[in-house]
Amino acid sequence: MTEHTEMQAEEGAADPANHAVLAAPQTGGELTELHPNHVKILRIQAFLVAAPFVLGSLVLEMAQLVPPGVFVVPVLLAALFLIIRVPLRRHHARGYAMSDDRLRVVRGLLFRSDTVVPFGRVQHIDVNQGPLERYYDLATLTLHTAGSHNASVHLPGILNQDALAMREVIRSHIKRETV
Amino acid sequence: MTEVTEVAAATGATGASGANGKPAIPRRTSPLGFVAKGLDGLRRAILPMVAVAYGMRDETFGLLTAVGLGLLIAGVAVGIRYLHWLRLTYTVGETDIRVESGLLSRAARSVPFERIQDVSLEQSLIPRLLGLVEVRFETGAGGKDELKLAYLTQAEGEELRELVRARKDGVGLAGEAPVPAADGTVSTPVTEPASEPLFAMDTRRLVTFGLFEFSLAVVAVIAGAVQQFGDFFAFRLWPASLDNLTDLQDGVAGRFDWLASAGPMMQFIGIAAAIFALLVVGLIVGVATGLVRTVLRDWGFTLDWTDKGFRRRRGLLTRTDVVMPAHRVQAVKITTGIIRKRFGWHGLSFISLAQDSGASNHIVAPFGQMEELAPIVRKAGFDLPADMAPWQRGAVEYRVDAALLPALLLVPAAAITAVVAGPLLGVLPIAGGAFLALRQAFLWRFERHCLTGRQLFISKGWLAPELSIASRIKLQSVEISQNSIGRRRGYATLHLGLAGGKMALRGISPQRAYELRSAILASIAEKDFSQLAQ
To answer: Which of B219, B205, B30, B50 is CA-nearest to residue B123?
Structure first.
């Protein structure tokens, strides 16, 4: 039954007329939002990507090869958009839902993907923390399956203790004996 | 002989009590093995020998040096091989198989029986002459990481295989080990388990198959080679540039002396004849290559149903013997070709975790009629689609977009071509676009899928359709993905996680995708991964 209602909600989300819902699928109340600090991590990552370009354009500006502002202004605007707006939208596009026998991970702005991994098919589980994630006490939960497609499904931006708790729950579902 | 009784005792013991007290002895591979490898090394020494002989052809002792060098290389190779052979031992233990190897650095690897997916035997030419086999233990690790023993005698190899299977069964499902006791004798697994032929190809079938395996690639390679080594043949097929046309004529004329004195008309006929001859040669070579390759690979192809699953034997020079338990089959695939489909020929392959000499699919019947393939599919625990199966098509929007997207490029291309090269050539891109649109219309009509209580069928392709059949409970994960166009236009792709293969359903309506997903997930949840084996 829950499957059915979930499906209905998803159909609503997939409605082409309903863009607001698309950008934030968790408004349906089905998905759990990632931790707010995840946005900060995404912003720092975006900043690291944008920084060289901004520096480059500043150097160009200083060299006065092109009319002032022609280069640096668009680059700065793009960088601001990339650092402030995009991570927020990416964050809102992500979410997960854990039920008693499966984990659903939704992500992607332009290329949306909505993956479900049944616990009965999980081969092993990783909880990873990068330096940024460690600073914010977040973690990435990775489920590995035997499938060639989606061999590993990543769920970033959850609290480390939540990730560890989820790992224990999922692990208790995996029988010791395997094929 | 002692080996045989030992194995029989072991299988009996695991079947009865699940343990035998006998200590495991490290064993060496066959002494003939390093002879086979040494011969292989000799083969490798030939190239340097030829190179030295050629390089020193003007020296007095050139040939002697070459032979000496060859002998040295071969000698060192054989020596090293001998030491390796001396230092490599394998032990068949109670729960695992261990291989210890290494000259200076020692490596010990242990593979538990439960993790061995299967044991396959492979024989290439030289070992085959010496009666040796290479034993491979497939664990799903893939490729280089797989454990293999080269070489054992054929009897040893088969024993080892039976032993591993017996131990594995003893560990996995107790009580099922002494199956072959059905025919009264005690230790039949060592010789030949009871088997029932499922599929075989006689010479006539093999030749027909070979003809369909016509290799266009070879023709292209030959054309390229002629281009490259044209000077060697004393003519060039195509002139370097258009004003070099006389070069071409000179070239051909030079090749065929009588042409030199002939008029331009005769020269033209000569060139045409040369090109035609080349095409014919290409065709013959293409057919012959396909034929030879097929015969070498699939000579004596037999597929049997044994108590351990499917057993496939094939190959002329390199003979392989692969066994795959039916429960390891994750999905089946039925393929065909544009021309062979008109004659009803299809190929059947299994998708599983184990690898088949690099390929991820196990071909179990490369060339047969559907009524021959159907029993194999049933044995693997799958069903072919019923006549009344509820087939569903994809989203029309997906096909429309797929037809329009190339048009976005082709229409400007047509306009530019029409302006630059004349209106007649401008038609070409338009025709290309029309062809692609027609293809999409056809694909919409014929690419379909169908979900039944146990299985998911996906039919793909237009001229040579490919049918994939997946078992619902054997899928690993389900993903629905949409790009931004698909989200606006209303279509999605359903990716299915499949052990050992990929499966995707493109361009279906999101509603259908979610419907399929919840149905498939409900089936997956019924059984844990570890229960799939039963």
So the answer is: B30
Is residue B352 located within the same domain as residue B426?
A: no
Q: By residue range, what is the domain housing residue B254? A: 212-297
Total count of domains within chain B = 4
Contact A101 B503 (CB under 8 A): no
Same domain for B275 and B400?
no
pTM beyond 0.80: no
Query: What ipTM does the predicted assembly reach?
Result: 0.75
Mean pLDDT of B226-233: 56
Residue B111 maps to a domain: yes
Mean pLDDT throughout B81-95?
84
Give tens-digit pLDDT for B91-126. Answer: 888 778 888 887 777 777 777 777 777 788 888 888
Judgement on whether residues B166 and B221 belong to the same structural domain of the protein: no
Residue B202 is assigned to a structural domain of this protein = no
Report chain B residues whose CB lies below 8 A from the CB of A114. 479-481
- The residue written with tokens 């146990």 in the block is B454
B395 neighbourhood in chain A, CB within 8 Å? none
Partner-chain contact B479 A145, CB within 8 Å:
no
Q: Looking at the structure, do residues B177 and B59 belong to the same domain, yes or no?
A: yes
Buried b / exposed e along B45-58 (16+ C-beta atoms within 10 A): beeebeebbeebee
Q: Which chain A residues are Cβ-neighbours of B477 within 8 angstroms?
A: 115-118, 121, 145, 147, 149-150, 153
Backbone conformation region of residue B499, classed left if phi is above 0, alpha if psi is from -120 to 50, else beta: beta
Are B290 and B355 contained in the same domain? Answer: no
